[in-house]
């Protein structure tokens, strides 16, 4: 009877287990193996041991890509979390039209990233873009945005904030789930709006903040589409047929993220062994950051308890 029960359980789990092995375990093991070889799809993989990993030490493009990716993690992720919390708090205060504004703020999240990036590049286009045109009317000399090394990454952050609706919905549900009795008790004790937010709302939605931070870091470490498309459109390469990889990092490498370098190595230089090594390092970093964040959050919760 127990054997039959176990076989029945395994039969239900089999599709999921097969999917995990085929689409997760096998690709990961294959990437780890090929990262230890010299491999270009045209020849038999040649074992080189840790040479690919040693090559990373003297790779200037990798350093630049890692620096840009770190900047995005440090700025992009907190900006989206703060923006989402701010919007969710604003929506909870609305007495009328809350449903309408929820829809308005959420709709940008449904726009495909490539289409949104193209639109943003043209909106922020120096000289002819409506944003700089508006700034000029009020006496502000607009920046070059995606054509400026200093402003290209902040422009990508603005793009992320515009599409923060997906995160806003999650925080809105969390904020609405905070018991109203806690706010009433705090008000009776004389707490103002900021004190209620800091002492009640934030601690109550801390698990959601942790979720947003972890998923945001993982997403940003893989930041590819928007950076690639923005560089291609802003540099004019998209209209000349020169190929999108030619414009990676435009301008002056300011948007050259880690995944862009990985793509360049693998599909432009055909150095798939080195590309797999880069992918393994990215996986290890993402896993390590996730584990550290979860452990720190757990330790913080234990200290408070």
Describe, in plain words, how this protein is organized in 3D.
- With 305 residues, the protein is an all-alpha fold.
- Helix content is 72%, strand content 1%.
- The chain has a two-stranded antiparallel sheet.
Count of helical segments? Answer: 15
Strand order of the largest sheet: 1-2
- The tally of structural domains comes to 1
From the spread of the alpha carbons, the general shape counts as: globular
CATH superfamily: MetI-like
Secondary-structure class: mainly alpha
Oligomeric description of these chains? single chain
On the 0 to 100 scale, the average pLDDT is 90
Q: Sheet with the most strands?
A: 2 strands, antiparallel
- What's the N-to-C terminus distance? 45 Å
Work out the strand percent.
under 5%
CATH hierarchy, class: Mainly Alpha
Annotate the secondary structure layout.
Blueprint: H1 2-34, E1 37-38, E2 46-47, H2 51-55, H3 60-93, H4 98-106, H5 113-123, H6 130-137, H7 152-162, H8 165-176, H9 180-188, H10 193-204, H11 206-221, H12 225-235, H13 237-240, H14 258-268, H15 272-304
Antiparallel strand pairs: 1-2
Helix pairs in contact: 1-15, 3-7, 3-8, 3-11, 3-14, 5-12, 11-15, 14-15
What keywords describe this structure?
single chain; 305 residues; mainly alpha; two-stranded antiparallel ribbon
Give a concise summary.
The protein has 15 helices and 2 strands. The chain has 305 residues and is mainly alpha-helical. It has one domain: MetI-like (MetI-like fold, Orthogonal Bundle).
């Amino acid at each position: 009877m127990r054997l039959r029960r176990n076989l029945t359980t395994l039969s239900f789990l089999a599709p999921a287990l097969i999917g995990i092995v085929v689409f997760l375990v096998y690709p990961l093991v294959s990437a780890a193996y090929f990262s230890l070889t010299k491999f270009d799809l045209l020849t038999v993989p040649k074992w080189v041991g840790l040479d690919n990993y040693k090559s990373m030490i003297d790779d200037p493009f990798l350093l630049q890509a890692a620096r840009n990716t770190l900047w995005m993690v440090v700025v992009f992720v907190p900006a989206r979390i703060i923006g989402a919390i701010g919007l969710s708090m604003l929506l909870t205060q609305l007495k009328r039209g809350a449903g309408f504004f929820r829809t308005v703020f959420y709709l940008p999240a449904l726009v495909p990233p490539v289409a949104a990036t193209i639109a943003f590049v043209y909106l922020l286009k120096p000289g002819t873009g409506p944003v700089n045109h508006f700034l000029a009317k009020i006496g502000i000399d607009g920046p070059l945005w995606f054509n400026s090394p200093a402003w290209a990454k902040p422009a990508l952050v603005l793009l992320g904030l515009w599409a923060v609706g997906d995160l806003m919905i999650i925080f809105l549900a969390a904020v609405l789930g905070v018991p109203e009795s806690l706010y009433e008790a705090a008000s009776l004790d004389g707490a103002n709006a900021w004190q209620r937010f800091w002492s009640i709302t934030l601690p109550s939605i801390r698990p959601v903040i942790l979720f947003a931070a972890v998923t945001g870091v993982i997403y940003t470490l893989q930041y590819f589409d928007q950076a690639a498309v923005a560089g291609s459109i802003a540099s004019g390469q998209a209209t000349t047929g020169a190929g999108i990889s030619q414009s990676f990092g435009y301008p002056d490498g300011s948007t050259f993220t880690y995944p862009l370098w990985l793509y360049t190595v693998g599909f432009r230089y055909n150095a798939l062994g080195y590309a797999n090594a880069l992918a393994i390092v990215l996986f290890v970093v993402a896993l390590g950051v996730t584990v550290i964040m979860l452990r720190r959050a757990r330790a913080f919760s234990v200290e408070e308890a």
